[in-house]
Design a protein that fits this description.
Helix content is 49%, strand content 6%. With 505 residues, the protein is an alpha/beta fold. The protein has three domains: 119 residues, HUPs (Rossmann fold); 185 residues, Serine Threonine Protein Phosphatase 5, Tetratricopeptide repeat (Alpha Horseshoe); 180 residues, Orthogonal Bundle (DNA Cyclobutane Dipyrimidine Photolyase, subunit A, domain 3). The strands form two sheets. It has a five-stranded parallel beta sheet with strand order 3-2-1-4-5, sandwiched between helices. A two-stranded antiparallel ribbon has the order 6-7. The radius of gyration is 24 Å and the shape is globular.
């Protein structure tokens, strides 16, 4: 019997289960990594995402060779052709793979017609197994993230003093919503010049014309575990103290603020969530860092990230098609070219994504996703855009975050109310409105901010469905106080926005 290991592009960690299981016989266990051009053509992926994945894969393959593994690296049209040739050449009888967390990848591999047995080994890139999350979820009436997060704190003994949370509170989120002021000066970030391998990948992608989206030449992300660890260290040293306070703030020209920028590395395996959590917790005790920043960050990794993965595994496969509000508007073309919209908040966020493949969580949720929700855009179209555009996007991340949280397409499985807001929220948490042609306070004239009339048009269109959500009672009460003539005018402006075309909005 000859065992071979297939390493997928989002599992680039030497401690992944498929490698550690056969560590003792690595010199006689063939390993393969494959770049599939057909897979890359499935979506108009941001070119920097392709660079990150393929450069990280090539660097990882070189590390495995240095460690004594027998590694084959293939660049092919498709996975199946490269696999079949490698299996025959090495006389593989059992193909071992760390189980993918994305359903499409798992189903694809399951259905491959190979001349060997396929053996999935449980994934160890998350803290909660699928079975553990399912057991937690089945015993509850509602799947509140806060409950799950507290359970995780206790389960892994993170920021705990015996059975009590450090500082006496589980959650310091009320301290983490401070708007930006004119004197904010976010820290300089750690970026990396492309090395020879990365530059080779950039030229290769350009030559293949795989995608036109994204500024490939401005690629400065890390591509190795060592670089990912440096970015984590830099975040803890330079950014973590102020991370919590300003984690929701948005400033023109400031792309990263105090955010960690480690999600791409977590999602491809260069960092493990527990090492990140422990590093932040250790820094808290060692340097007496602000509890609101430390707890707020740990909640994102131990709470939100694990929760989103758990929900994805828990719901049925049809979750992808959920559309509770029955929205069917097409995605405006300006999502692919942010310079063609004159709404400044959208322009700032979209051009930033084009340049970097990144935007922080409030830009994603309260600008991009919020607009799609209140404008009535089809949730599957906006989910596809997020999946294509973001450097840290994967099936398990985007379905839950975009469809569940951002679009409320699941009708409340994940969130207790839609994350919908008018220009007032964006004005409070950013400086975007001050440089916009639209009036942030107007909702009735041709100068009105589209977020304002779209918001009330959304609430009025769906008032009957929203009545079933207790957290919407206050907003529905405010809706009743709007004069009928004003409401009709906002409905009209929303309709005219679509009728007049979206390219210059």
């Amino acid at each position: 019997m000859t065992i071979g290991i297939w390493i997928l592009g989002d599992r680039l960690n030497k401690l992944q289960s498929s490698l550690t299981t056969y560590q003792y016989q690595k010199n006689k266990t063939p390993v393969i990594l494959i770049e599939s051009l057909n897979y890359a053509k499935q979506r108009p992926y941001h070119q920097q995402k392709l660079v990150l994945i393929w450069s990280a894969m090539r660097h990882f393959a070189a590390e495995l060779k240095t460690d004594g593994w027998s590694v084959s690296y293939e660049i092919a049209e498709d996975f199946i052709t490269a696999l079949q040739q490698w299996i025959r050449k090495n006389q593989i009888t059992e193909l071992v793979i760390t189980k993918p967390c994305d359903r499409p990848s798992y189903n694809y591999i399951q259905n491959l017609d190979l001349d060997c047995q396929i053996n999935f080994i449980p994934d160890n890139h998350f803290l909660w197994s699928q079975e553990e999350f399912s057991n937690w979820a089945k015993s509850r009436k509602g799947l509140l993230m806060e409950d799950f997060y507290r359970e995780g704190r206790k389960k892994f003994n993170i920021l705990m003093e015996e059975n009590r949370p450090v500082g006496g509170q589980w959650n310091y989120d009320k301290q983490n919503r401070k708007p930006p002021n004119k004197n904010l000066s976010p820290p300089k970030r750690l970026w990396f010049e492309p090395d020879a391998i990365t530059q080779e990948v950039i030229e290769w992608i350009k030559s293949q014309h795989l995608s036109k989206y994204g500024a490939i030449e401005s690629f400065n992300w890390g591509v190795t575990r060592e670089q990912a660890q440096q970015i984590l260290d830099h975040f803890i040293t330079e950014c973590l103290p102020n991370f919590g306070t300003y984690q929701d703030a948005m400033i023109t020209g400031e792309y990263t603020m105090w955010h960690s920028l480690i999600s791409p590395y977590l999602n491809i395996g260069l960092l493990h969530p527990m090492e990140v959590i422990k590093a932040v917790e250790t820094a808290y005790y060692k340097h007496d860092l602000p509890i609101n920043s430390v707890e707020g960050f740990i909640r994102q990794v131990l709470g939100w990230r694990e929760y989103m993965h758990g929900i994805y595994q828990y719901v049925d496969a049809d979750y992808l098609n959920y559309n509770w509000f029955e929205h069917n508007r097409p995605l405006p073309q300006f999502f692919w070219d942010g310079n063609t919209t004159d709404m400044n908040c959208l322009k700032q966020s979209l051009t930033q994504v084009e340049k970097t493949g990144y935007a922080h969580h409030i830009q994603r949720l309260m600008v991009l996703s919020n607009f799609a929700l209140i404008a009535g855009i089809n949730p599957q179209e906006i989910e596809n855009w997020f999946h294509s555009a973001f450097i840290d996007a994967y099936d398990w991340v985007m379905q839950t975050n975009v469809l569940g949280m951002g679009q409320f397409a699941d009708g409340g499985i994940l969130a207790s109310k839609p994350y919908a807001a008018s220009a007032n929220y964006i004005n409070k948490m950013s400086d975007y409105c001050s440089n916009c042609k639209y009036n942030k306070s107007d909702r009735l004239t041709d100068k009105a901010c589209p977020f304002n009339y779209f918001y009330w048009d959304f609430i009025s269109r769906h008032r009957d469905k929203l009545k079933s959500l207790s957290r919407m009672n206050l907003i529905l009460g405010n809706l009743k106080r709007i004069p009928e003539a004003e409401l009709k005018q906002m409905n009209l402006l929303a309709e005219q926005w679509w009728e007049n075309g979206t390219s210059n909005h």
